[in-house]
Amino acid sequence: MIQKMSDKQPISFSEPVRKLTRQARIECNGHVVTVGGNAPVRIQSMTNTDTVDAVETAIQVKELALAGSELVRITVNTPEAALAVPYIREQLDRMGVHVPLIGDFHFNGHTLLTDYPACAKALSKYRINPGNVGKGEKRDRQFGMMIEAAARWNKAVRIGVNWGSLDQELLADLMDENSRRPTPWDVRQVMYEALISSAVESAQRAEQIGLAGEQIILSCKVSGVQDLVAVYRELSKRCNYALHLGLTEAGMGTKGTVASASALSILLQEGIGDTIRVSLTPQPGESRNQEVVVASEILQALELRRFVPSVTACPGCGRTTSTTFQELAKDIDDFLRARMPEWKKSFPGVESLKVAVMGCIVNGPGESKHADIGISLPGTGEAPAAPVYIDGEKRMTLRGDDIVSQFRVLVEKYIEERFGRASNL
Questions:
Q1: Could you count the other beta carbons within 10 Å of the beta carbon of residue 145?
Q2: How far is CA 334 from each of CA 188, 338, 377, 385, rounded to the nearest angstrom?
Q3: pLDDT score at 4
Q4: What is d(CA 147, CA 321) in angstroms, rounded to the nearest whole number?
Q5: Which residues on adjacent β-strands are paired with residue 186?
Q6: Which residues define the annotated binding site for [4Fe-4S] cluster?
Q7: Cα–Cα distance between 376 and 386 in angstroms, integer?
Q8: Which residues share a beta bridge with 74?
Q9: Which cofactors go with this protein (predicted)?
Q10: Taking Cα atoms as reference points, which of 99, 195, 207 lies closest to residue 150?
Q11: What value does the mean pLDDT take over residues 356-372?
Q12: Bridge-partner residues for 44, per DSSP?
């Protein structure tokens, strides 16, 4: 028997529930990017230039920032790289790019931060890998030097543990302890424990040395989706530090994109994660910006943030043998992304716009009505006319060979009228 509507309970909405963590303040020239707490999930990226080339590195940082990266990490691995950091910051300041720079330190970070104070000052945040700061007493001393530098210059620190560069002494101790258990854990579970213990214990040592807990961000990166989910679920239970998410060595193209989206979406939906990075290996000649685009698409798909107007477009089928709707969808999407830097300043809220570009009569009118502005293009055998829907109502029908340009004019007019009013209130 079919249950009546009146006897049913309403279906619950699905939405991420954020876990409240401590909030770090990452400063750059008076501009503050908050991470954790009630701040939005932030997007981070990293350059792949030689840091010694200050101009080339500054240009790539600017490109990443314009693409939407709110924090950009650069490699600081040599004295020459440390010397270049203040000049990179200077170049960015001249271009009006106030994105915070994160120094990525391994092995010799204690020396570079001590010997090159201008570098330590110019950076807004330090990334420290506890697996690469030395062994035994040397590890404690060198880790302490880096934390003392952060406290001295009032910088945030990400303590980033990696599966591939785990503290081997800690791992050996845990393996020995595990061998004495009546029922030993799986080796992979011991690795999970080593990752989490390294991160949390390092953070606690940093606080003991004098760094404020609010200025500490943790990460435990691995390259497998299920491994990342397991580690971060447990890490979030054991601490309330802000957490940085990302698969390490996610891969190239579709593989890296899908793996990152799968892992990050599960955790973000559960309220875990305060900053994210999609570590894509660029295709030959591909812009580094692609990892920023993917990260923003993940956050927008989960409705955690909005960056650009969304374009709904059908995939096409035998009813849509013409490529017109594909060309229009791409044209509109490219057009919206290109204009967003200007529109954000003039039309607040424009990123919430929903546009539909549909290919035939089956779903075209319905999807177009659900969008703020939508067009239903003629499918195979349909009349050569394209009805346009604005705010759920059919307003006009476009005809001719220039439907693409006509619709683009309508979209821009709609943005000016709707979001221009909001800016004048």
A1: 16
A2: 44, 6, 19, 24
A3: 84
A4: 62
A5: none
A6: 314, 317, 360, 367
A7: 5
A8: 103
A9: [4Fe-4S] cluster
A10: 207
A11: 92
A12: 71
Q: Where are the alpha helices (DSSP H) in 180-224?
A: 187-209
Q: Which residues 6+ apart lie within 8 Å of 152 measured at CB?
A: 120
Residue 176 has pLDDT above 90, yes or no: yes
User: How far apart are the two ends of the chain, measured CA to CA in Å?
Assistant: 54
The string of pLDDT tens digits covering residues 116-170 is 999 999 999 999 999 999 988 899 999 999 999 999 999 999 999 999 999 999 9
From the list 242, 240, 281, 274, the residue with the least C-alpha distance to 260 is 281
Q: For residue 56, how many C-alpha atoms fall within 13 Å in the half-sphere facing its CB? A: 8
Q: Are 351 and 342 in contact (CB under 8 A)?
A: no
Report the DSSP pairing between strands 242-245 and 71-75: unpaired
Rounded to whole angstroms, how far apart are CA atoms 143 and 132? Answer: 9
The DSSP annotation for 44-78 comes to EEE--S-TT-HHHHHHHHHHHHHHT-SEEEEE--S
Residue 20 CA to residue 38 CA, distance in Å, equals 7
Element (H, E) at 376: strand 373-376
User: Which CATH architecture is the domain 310-416 placed in?
Assistant: 2-Layer Sandwich (3.30)
- In whole angstroms, what is the distance from residue 41 CA to residue 273 CA? 7
Please state, in angstroms and rounded to a whole number, the distance separating the CA atoms of residues 261 and 175.
32
**In 3D, which of 300, 405, 296 has the Cα closest to residue 353?**
300
Is pLDDT of 425 > 60? no
Tell me what pLDDT residue 422 has: 56
pLDDT for the residue 188 = 96
User: Which pTM does this prediction carry?
Assistant: 0.94
- pLDDT class of 239 with cuts at 50, 70, 90: very high
Show the tokens assigned to 351: 């990123």
Residue ranges for the binding site?
Answer: 314, 317, 360, 367
In the block, tokens 């006509």 appear at 406
- C-beta of residue 67 within 8 angstroms of C-beta of residue 295: no
**Enclosing H/E stretch for 417:** helix 403-424
In the CATH scheme, what is the homologous superfamily, with its name and number, of domain 21-302?
Answer: Dihydropteroate synthase-like (3.20.20.20)
267/219 Cα distance (integer angstroms): 13
Domain boundary assignment for the chain: 21-302, 310-416
CB atoms within 10 A of CB 325: 25
